[in-house]
Write a structure and sequence with these properties.
The complex is a heterodimer of chains A (767) and B (140).
Chain A lengths: L13 H13 L4 H21 L5 H54 L21 H9 L19 H8 L22 H17 L12 H11 L8 H5 L4 H5 L6 E4 L3 E2 L2 E2 H6 L3 E2 L6 E2 L4 E3 L5 E2 L1 H4 L24 H7 L20 E3 L8 E4 L8 H4 L3 H10 L21 E3 L7 H35 L10 H11 L9 H11 L1 H4 L5 H11 L4 H4 L1 H14 L2 H39 L1 H24 L2 H14 L4 H23 L14 H4 L5 H7 L4 H16 L1 H16 L2 H14 L10 H14 L1
Antiparallel strand pairs in A: 1-9, 2-3, 4-5, 6-7, 6-8, 8-10
Helix pairs in contact in A: 1-31, 2-3, 2-23, 6-7, 7-14, 12-15, 15-16, 15-22, 15-28, 15-29, 17-29, 19-24, 19-25, 21-25, 22-23, 22-25, 22-28, 22-31, 23-24, 23-25, 28-29, 28-31, 29-30
Chain B lengths: L4 H12 L5 E5 L6 E7 L10 E7 L10 E4 L20 H13 L9 H9 L1 H16 L2
Antiparallel strand pairs in B: 1-2, 2-3, 3-4
The chains are: A mainly alpha (767), B alpha+beta (140).
Chain lengths: 767, 140
């Protein structure tokens, strides 16, 4: 899926991946995970058994185990491909790297372009995230400088021998040292040189590059230059034929074929000496290069190709100076969702020297060619047509003396769309895809936020209006507005800043329990009937049914994901809690002799009954449980806070079950013991439907699970989003961004949701 | 990992031709990490102060900017709000621009909002505070 994205391959993201994988394999699908899983189911069944003492204990136990094994299988099925996908990706990346390394070695050994290379020499060590093929082609076409080796040092008075040594990074010999024979090819005769130079000249003659216009080749221009500069211009056609430069081949329209000009000398001098004779320093990497570097299109500064390929767009981001409070009214939910990512921008890289946007370079080809060329370049270059100004005369005059530094300052800047300009986008054509991907992701985040809004509305609705039957089946926003009206503390169109705390207050049951566990607990104990819907199940269910129709499947899926992770976390917490409680109960047994026995056995049981009771509407049991809990005070409060929250999500699940028939295959029996398995079982159904929503869900489960770890912040993050979603558009944007940041989880594109829950949860456990 | 030639050269040049009023000395054990001392520009509230900074060249320097932090307390509206980085800039240029910023505070592009506010509303007072802080924290 997303593993070709450059960002992922850039080293920043692999660690999380590995972490996930490790943490997952910790309780992975294989035999190693079996023990923990068994243990968990064991404790659960124990709990269940207590609860159902004397009743259908066995059925419950069986059902539970069945479900667990279901889930186990599900996870196995799920993680199997995921893991292997991960491995495959890692392998692929390693292989790619190895291959690239090999290819680099091979290319450096075998290929050359005008004394340079077609692969980076190694100034920068990061991943090469530019398009290798495009750069290679541009270099063979002489539209981008080859990757010459940058020399750490350079002296103007170096002899040829010294230059050659320097170019090969050998110790600089004495000045009177003779020029060593070229390692690849012994010194060439003038006949060789002739053979090499002439074809270009003849070819340039044979071509009519004034007429055709194809911007993808520069050899035509090059030829025209060598025509004027080559001292051997008049020579022989037969040679040109042997080299494939004949008229016929150049006019054929086949794909470019690379041909090699193997000579390592220019004008009877070693190519290195000619190249580096008047070396100039790249102002960015501070290395010395032949004085033929790319020049910036805007300010004519030199920049070596190795540095150039490093410069790229910044990653997609929200524009910095966007008006924070635009008075635009909030459009419909769908619109908002669609536009959520649209504000992301990614500006083209700007010139490092003059900061002009849309950085691009121009390379003036050398007057001679060595190494690879395209033999059958059929599309003569059209420089003349596009830039008929002083450019050509300047370049040809300067380049007519090979090795002479390009002293003449170009007094012309190139438009960014001039054919000879190579922009940073040109060698990274995937930038648009990346931006689109980022926008997409943002839009999905927005969708996730919308789902959360909806969840909050529904909960509010059920709390505040479980009996009032006014239904707005098409606008969840209107529901909240209604709710706002009914809860007198807010005006419907009040600033969302105000709406935020107010909404939070009115939805205490969702948001408050977790940040404020102690107060909530008290409230719990005193009000007793706080979970209204659970005490009133038929109407709640009724409402839920109705709401279910108006929220689309996607949102329901999201909520399902949230609920799942919440439930899982709950399960885990319960387990911990229980273990601790058993211990503490023992200790307490001495101090509170009268209550000891009851606590030891009923504390966990009571906790179970909170969930079940709520789910089934056993208000009485709930009351006792909160009383029980009160006696235990501190230890159990986290669980209380959590149950309260998860309970509401459960109601949602009920709605989602109804709305999504596919996910209801296990759910209809939700009345009985299966309530206990709510947390685990629906994953099965959910997965089958959620394939298309994976990315968006990635955010939400994380949200939810992160909320467990840092409950207060998490809630604050969500609730503003909810409230502001109701408010003005700009506010929504702001909070949405905030939300996005808070739950930033890059590069989870292809991980399955269920697995993600698992990995996140386990990550927390191990952490 | 080998130190890129650019860092070596920049360091060499910084040592060979130091910028007046600026010292940048690389750590011996980590040549990407510099101890920097900038003298407060004359005619500025920071005159007479020596401000210590740390400068670190990240892995992909110069494609990413150096990380710079003031170690000495300083009262300034927009300290460390550096110009947009570009790989054509250098340690030298960035330190120079910090020094220049000391001489010309710009409360319209603030980093420290409260300081900027004060600078706008009560410039003499703000300058006095800056001077005081310089005396207290930055005078060797």
């Amino acid at each position: 899926m997303g593993n070709t994205s450059t960002k992922e391959s850039r080293g920043a993201s692999p660690p999380p991946h590995h972490h996930h994988r490790n943490s997952r394999s910790f309780s992975g699908p294989s035999s190693s995970s079996f023990a923990p899983e068994m243990e968990r189911s064991g404790t659960s069944s124990l709990r269940l058994g207590r609860r159902h003492r004397g009743e259908n204990f066995e059925a419950a136990l069986l059902g539970l185990n069945l479900n667990h094994s279901h889930r186990e299988r599900e996870r196995e099925r799920d993680e199997g491909p995921y893991k292997s996908r991960e491995e495959r990706r890692a392998e692929r990346e390693a292989e790619k790297k190895k291959e690239r390394e090999k290819e680099r070695e091979r290319s450096m050994a075998e290929e050359s372009i005008d004394g340079g290379y077609l692969v980076t020499v190694g100034v920068y060590t990061g991943v090469e995230d530019y398009n290798l093929k495009i750069v290679r082609q541009l270099q063979i076409e002489r539209r981008l400088a080859p990757f010459w080796r940058g020399l750490p040092d350079h002296e103007d008075d170096w002899t040829d021998a010294q230059l050659v040594a320097a170019a090969h990074l050998k110790p600089i010999p004495d000045a009177d040292e003779p020029v060593p024979p070229s390692p690849t090819k012994p010194s060439t005769t003038s006949e060789d040189l002739t053979r090499l130079t002439v074809p270009m000249a003849s070819r340039s003659r044979s071509q009519s590059y004034g007429s055709d216009a194809s911007p993808s080749s520069s050899t035509g221009r090059l030829s025209s230059l060598s025509l004027s500069s080559s001292p051997l211009a008049g020579f022989t056609r037969p040679r040109s034929k042997t080299l494939g430069f004949s008229r016929s081949s150049s006019s054929s329209n086949t794909a470019p074929v690379e041909t090699n000009i193997p000579s390592r000398t220019v004008n009877n001098r070693p190519i290195e000496a000619v190249l580096y004779e008047n070396a100039s320093e790249c102002p960015i990497c501070f290395l010395y290069y032949p004085p033929h570097l790319n020049k910036t299109r805007c300010c004519d500064q030199p920049i070596c190709s190795e540095c150039f390929v490093q410069i790229k767009r910044a990653d997609p981001h929200v524009p910095e100076h966007s008006p924070p409070n635009s008075p635009t009214p909030q459009p419909a939910d769908q619109d908002r969702r669609a536009h959520a990512g649209d504000q992301l921008v990614s500006e083209p890289a700007s010139c490092p020297f003059c900061k002009q946007p849309e950085f691009g370079v121009v390379f003036t080809p050398l007057p001679w060619k060595r190494g690879l060329v395209y033999a059958n370049q059929s599309h003569p270059y059209s420089v003349q047509q596009h830039s008929p100004l002083s450019y050509n005369s300047t370049t040809s005059s300067t380049s007519s003396l090979p090795g002479t530094p390009n002293g003449t300052r170009r007094n012309k800047t190139y438009a960014v769309n001039a054919p000879e300009v190579i922009t940073t986008d040109r060698i990274r054509p995937d930038w648009a895809t990346k931006l689109a991907h980022a926008k997409n992701q943002a839009a999905r985040r927005a969708a996730a936020a919308t789902a959360l809004h909806t969840a909050a509305y529904l909960m509010n609705n059920m709390n505040n209006q479980s009996s009032s039957s006014s239904s707005n089946p098409f606008s969840s926003r209107r529901i909240l507005r209604r709710m706002n009206n009914s809860s007198s503390s807010i005006t419907p169109n009040g600033g969302s800043g105000n709406a935020t705390p107010a909404a939070a207050a009115s939805t205490t049951s969702i948001s408050m329990p977790e940040p404020q566990q102690q107060p909530q607990q008290q409230q719990h104990a005193t009000t007793g009937a706080m979970p209204v819907p659970s005490g009133n199940p038929p109407s709640a269910l009724h409402n839920a049914l109705r709401r279910a129709r108006m929220v689309d499947l996607e949102e329901m899926m999201l909520m399902e994901a949230i609920r799942l992770s919440l439930a899982e976390e709950e399960e885990r917490k319960k387990k911990e809690e229980k273990e601790r409680k058993v211990k503490e109960a023992k200790e307490q047994a001495d101090a509170e002799r009268n209550a000891a026995a009851r606590l030891a056995t009923s504390a966990p049981e009571a906790r179970r009954s909170v969930d079940v009771g709520k789910g089934k509407g056993l208000a009485g049991k709930l009351d006792t449980s909160s009383v029980t809990r009160k006696s235990e005070e501190g230890q159990s409060s986290p669980t209380i806070g959590f149950s309260a929250a998860s309970h509401h999500i459960k109601i949602h699940r009920a709605t989602s079950d109804v709305s999504s028939s596919a996910s209801s295959m296990k759910e209809p029996e939700a009345g009985g013991n299966s309530d206990d398995e709510d947390g685990t079982e629906p994953m099965f159904n959910f997965q089958s439907l959620a394939q298309t929503l994976m990315e968006a869900e990635d955010d939400n489960p994380n949200n939810a699970v992160a909320g467990k770890g840092k409950q207060p912040e998490h809630i604050e993050n969500i609730i503003p989003t909810i409230a502001t979603g109701e408010g003005k558009k700009d506010e929504e944007k702001g909070s949405h961004n905030e939300n996005g940041k808070a739950t930033e989880e890059p590069d989870t594109a292809d991980s399955k949701t269920g697995v993600r829950h698992e990995s996140v949860r386990i990550g927390q456990e191990t952490a | 990992m080998a130190l890129p030639k650019r860092i070596i050269k920049e360091t060499e040049r910084l040592v060979a031709e130091p910028v007046p009023g600026i010292q940048a000395v690389p750590h011996e054990d980590n040549l990407r990490y510099f101890d920097v001392a900038i003298h407060g520009p004359t005619q500025s509230p920071y005159e007479g102060g020596v401000f210590k900074l740390e400068l670190f060249l990240p892995e992909d320097y110069p494609m990413t900017p150096p990380k710079i932090r003031f170690l000495t307390k300083i009262y300034h509206p927009n300290i460390d709000r550096l110009a947009n980085w570009s790989p054509a800039l250098q340690i030298r240029t960035i330190l120079l621009s910090i020094q220049a910023l000391l001489g010309a505070p710009n409360p319209d592009d603030p980093l420290a909002n409260d300081v900027a506010q004060r600078w706008k509303e009560d410039e003499p007072g703000a300058i006095a505070t800056a001077r005081e802080w310089t005396k207290t924290h930055a005078t060797p």
